[in-house]
Amino acid sequence: MRRCALSPVEIPATSSGVAGGGKPRSCAKQPVPKRNTSPSEGELPVDAPERRRLPPILRRAWYGLNQAFRRRIAHLEITPDQFTVMRILREVEGLTQRQLTQLMSSDPNTVASLLERMERAGLVERRPHARDRRAHHVELKPPGHRKYELAREIAVALQTEVLSAIPAGEREGFLANLASVADACRSAADERPSG
């Protein structure tokens, strides 16, 4: 069997390598088998190649946005993740490292490593928690505030540029729907597998 580049149909090949043993057949003219279209008749499965699929769209959007931002802030010698830390610390005071990890939708080891690099660069400071010796408060230092202000202008301009792909009247609705998808993804990640 060979898979046609233009169709999801597998075409039986003969010893000559040509489907049907005769002249080569065009991939575009191959019949497409009817797929199981449940739950409703005529609707393609959610993972059909012909459909827009959530995971690749989210990945493509995130990767493109992250790379564009990374390039635009490179001269500030910070990364998009470091900017996110600075933004959260500006918006919410008195956070512990654990709380910061949750707000970043990240894992403890990644955030610990990130904060270590930021501490060495003089952008943040970690202080022991007054009541819990295992916890640390994270604070943004003056150089972190200054870098944040410079990077924020770039972030706002990039967001405006990217969202201009959507009609102005639909942007808030799009962001609200995307936030709902993000919440559903978080809930799915927090679920424990049964069995």
- What is the CATH topology classification name of one domain? Arc Repressor Mutant, subunit A
Give start-end ranges of low-pLDDT stretches.
1-38
Q: What is the annotated CATH architecture of one domain? A: Orthogonal Bundle
The order of strands across the largest sheet is: 1-2
So what's the overall shape?
A: globular
Q: What do the pLDDT scores average to?
A: 82
Q: Name the structural class.
A: mainly alpha
Helix percent band = 40-55%
Number of helices: 6
Radius of gyration: 25 Å
Helix and strand pattern: EEHHHHEEHH
Can you put this structure into words, describing what you see?
It is a single chain. This protein is mainly α and 195 residues long. It has a domain at 79-166: Arc Repressor Mutant, subunit A. Helices cover 48% and strands 7% of the residues. The chain contains six helices and four strands, in the order ββααααββαα. The strands form two sheets. Strands 1-2 form a two-stranded antiparallel sheet. Helix 1 (54-73) crosses helix 5 and helix 2 (80-91) packs across helix 5. The chain is globular, with a radius of gyration of 25 Å. The model is unreliable at 1-38 (pLDDT under 50).
